[in-house]
Amino acid sequence: MAEDLQIIKGSKAEQYEALIPQIKGLLEGETDLVANLANIAAALKEQFGWFWVGFYLVKQDQLVLGPFQGPVACTRIRKGRGVCGSSWASASTLIVPDVEQFPGHIACSSLSRSEIVVPLVKNGAVMGVLDVDSSEYNRFDETDQQYLEQVVALLNC
Ligand code: SME
After folding, report:
1. Helix or strand (DSSP H, E) at 85
2. What are the pLDDT digits (tens) for 4-62?
3. For residues 79 and 129, is the Cβ–Cβ distance under 8 A?
């Protein structure tokens, strides 16, 4: 497997369409969850240049920081807290156009302006979340939701 990522220009959908098969290739034959989460975070960061992209994993009653790309971040988040903990509690994707308007948003960085959080679901239970932060307002929409849900579905958690 070639480890070089092909970065493409184009619409958001075109970028995801080119990236997802490459992510699939990166995960092929690798069963280690941390290795796969690390490569997904790196691939998304390289293609989209987002401020922060990474994973939190459910450990007992908290989300604990996992593989990520970007500035240092909060290590533990309780269920129902912030955008990540709310996505865990509701087992649903949350799109936040302006993080300051989200009650209880956890500001790991004051530079984060908008956010999308996608839960990783296995056998009906949330085992973690993919969290993406942008330094611009209103950066994420249903297109991101649709494709990022496809990305996490590639993980056989
Ligand atoms: N803002 C998130 C916390 C995680 S950091 O953004 C990396 C939240 O409110 O859950």
Report:
1. helix 82-90
2. 899 999 999 999 999 999 999 999 999 999 999 999 999 999 999 999 999 999 999 99
3. no
Ligand 1, residues 50, 56, 115: which to mutate, most atoms within 8 A of Cβ? 115
pTM confidence score: 0.96
Tell me the domains of the chain and their CATH numbers: 12-153 (3.30.450.40)
- The residues with which 124 forms a beta bridge, in sequence order, are none
Q: How many angstroms separate the CA atoms of 87 and 80, rounded?
A: 8
Is residue 126 a contact partner of residue 119, using CB atoms and an 8 Å limit?
Answer: yes
What's the burial of 121, exposed, middle or buried (CB within 10 Å: 0-12/13-18/19+)? middle
